[in-house]
Structure formats: structure tokens, C-alpha cells
Write a structure and sequence with these properties.
The chain has one helix and three strands. A three-stranded antiparallel beta sheet has the order 2-1-3, covered by helices on one side. It is elongated, with a radius of gyration of 19 Å. The chain has 82 residues and is of the alpha+beta class.
Length: 82
């Protein structure tokens, strides 16, 4: 079984750089190191989970249910939670 892979991206003197690791803890520590050094910029990372099943997010809601029949009740509040 494949593991998740984390890729960290950053700019070093206007040159794009990246590093990959299967260890999320290491990825976060590396990003912390990069962020403490003003020489580096545009620091971010992404993750791939090869064991993910299906699409991310919900692509359709019919009668307040997701495609697999689960009740979907999320509503965006525009009143600041009041």
C-alpha cells in the first residue's frame, strides 16, 4: 500500500524549490525552518493520499442528501453567526 506524500514548495532567491517526504511531521518542521529564514518566500505544501476513494468535496445535493444518501445540512451563514 502506498503512503501519503507531502511536497513542500518555496522560493529561494527567486528560484523555485521543492522537497518531498512521506512524513507530515517532517514536512511541517521543514516549513517552520523555511518560514523563520527571511531568505525564503512563498512557502506552501500539498499532500496526496493515494488511498482516497472518490472525488473530494460534494458535487451534487438532491433533497438535502449527498450522492451516497448522507444528510447534508451545511449552510453558509452571512450574519456573522448571529
Amino acid at each position: 500500500m502506498s503512503e501519503s506524500k507531502y511536497t513542500i514548495y518555496w522560493m529561494d532567491n527567486h528560484e523555485p524549490q521543492y522537497k518531498q517526504t512521506p512524513d507530515m511531521g517532517y514536512a511541517l518542521k521543514w516549513m517552520e525552518y523555511l518560514r523563520k529564514n527571511p531568505k525564503f518566500s512563498a512557502i506552501c505544501f500539498c499532500a496526496e493520499n493515494p488511498n482516497q476513494v472518490g472525488k473530494m468535496g460534494v458535487d451534487s445535493i438532491v433533497d438535502n442528501k449527498t450522492p451516497d444518501g448522507v444528510e447534508y445540512t451545511w449552510v453558509k451563514r452571512r450574519d456573522g453567526g448571529q
